[in-house]
Specification:
The protein is mostly helical. The chain is 76% helix and 0% strand. The protein has one domain. It has helices spanning 2-25, 31-43, 49-74, 76-82, 89-103, 117-127, 132-156, 161-203, 211-214, 222-229.
């Protein structure tokens, strides 16, 4: 953590911009730790708070806009590309679409705090033909929350960045666990619903037809009566 602090201190805003952009595009760079470092540098007077937050928001929105346009132009192919390393890409594609259809753009407000969700939402919004202005508005608000939470934590714990990094790691693990639990609950709910529908369908019986309504003879089936009436 101290090594990252020294690196950001040496290269300043330009490195922060490039590293955060690479993180948002999909490179394995620890974005939250970069924001922690920026907050700590702001507390030490090495960076200005408002420019650092503005830069982080701008970077996040720009990178997500790239993925949004890719999803808008590539359609389901881009979404399938995002899930290419999963065991069942088609299943993950369908699940992502269902989640987005249920919750919509407000997911962008918390997506960056859930690893994996932040990567798939921008192209999914583009695939769903969400309006650009609405997408950028929600994405900017979510980016602001993301920058303020992690940057603020780095600012408050600037004297102990290792402890701040430990908090971030624990929070990330907790969020992943909550997301996994939510998925399991959703799948269990669907299974219970399906089992209930199957059970109800087995209980359904065709109501017996009153033979008096079909003909004069109680013992004679309706089809036979109808055939006799038609001269068959």
């Amino acid at each position: 953590m101290n090594a990252m602090f020294q690196f950001v201190l040496k290269h300043g805003y330009s490195f922060l911009f490039a590293a955060l952009f690479a993180h948002q595009i999909g490179f394995p760079i620890p974005g939250p730790l970069l924001l922690l470092t920026a907050g700590a540098l702001a507390a030490a007077g090495k960076l200005n708070v408002l420019p650092a937050i503005g830069l982080a928001i701008t970077v996040c929105v720009l990178a997500d806009w790239v993925w949004y346009e890719a999803g808008r132009r590539g359609g389901d192919k881009m979404l399938h590309f995002m899930h290419r390393f999963t065991r069942d890409p088609d299943f993950h594609d369908r699940r992502a679409k269902k989640i987005f259809a249920r919750h919509g753009l407000p997911l962008l407000l918390v997506a960056r705090f859930v690893p994996g969700l932040d990567a798939v939402l921008p192209p999914l919004a583009g695939t769903s033909r969400t309006g650009r202005v609405r997408f950028l508005a929600f994405d900017a608000i979510g980016a602001g929350l993301y920058a303020c939470v992690y940057g603020g934590l780095g600012y408050l714990l600037s004297n102990d960045l290792d402890r701040a990094a430990a908090y971030v790691s624990r929070a990330g693990t907790l969020l992943v666990g909550l997301a996994f639990a939510g998925i399991c609950i959703y799948i269990a709910h669907k299974l219970v619903q399906r089992h209930r529908l199957v059970r109800e369908s087995r209980l359904v019986r065709i109501a017996p037809v009153d033979p008096i309504e079909c003909g004069d003879s109680v013992d004679m089936p309706c089809g036979i009566i109808g055939g006799q009436e038609n001269g068959e």
